[in-house]
Amino acid sequence: MPTYLTEGVILRRVDYGEADRILTVLTREHGKIGVIARGVRKSGSRLAAHTDLFARSRMQLARGRGELDVLTQAETMGSAAPLADARRAACAAVCAELADRVLEGNHPDEETFDLVVDALRDCTDSSRDPRGALVWLTRRMIDRLGYAPQLHHCASCSTALLETSAWFSAIAGGLLCDRCALSDPGAVECSVRVIKVLRVAAAGDAELYRRLRLDEASLVTLEAVAERELAQHLDRQLRSLPVLRAIERR
Known about the structure:
The chain is α+β, with helices and mostly antiparallel strands. It has 8 helices and 8 strands. The protein has helices spanning about 85-100, 110-125, 130-145, 180, 190-205, 205-210, 215-235, 240-250, and strands at about 5-15, 20-25, 30-35, 55-60, 70-75, 165-170, 175, 190.
């Protein structure tokens, strides 16, 4: 079977048979692909350490006869993701599931690959807030789906928004003025600070976003906005979100 090299990050894995695993891998050169890691669950497998969830590796793959390619060699890039922190692991799981759900198979996109890799790295970096990383990835992925929200004018009446709080409506597709907010009881009230963060994310300014210090109240609001958008634009809820919320309630 012909082989090829690629850089990839593991989004999902499922045990298969007695010793194998089926991996969903987001690669830089080939997009999202399915991979089978044969014998990886056997004691002493040299590939086991390179098939951890969220691990970023340089992989050698053999073209399979079916839909799955075969993992033949792998080398982890950088340090292994520390997942002892349940909250960080849960945030990383949401990021990985979101990428898996949104991205189509075999459609390479280097910008999206870097976006997902950076989010997973920030989720497991003790110097970064994983919730901020999750909010950033969600905002960027929603934009890439073609659902960029209206953040400068009322999404209902098109009135220019003043520098004051407004209401975010996933149904309307953006911020609403006080008058139009009455039409959506589920709209989320956003402070001026939150609105500025949403605009930074919409502009795709990753460096500026990373410099922001998000307080607890802002994070709670940004998460609420993101969850309503995901519920509006995805056909079903992400399974990992309730796990994250249960951990945060402890």
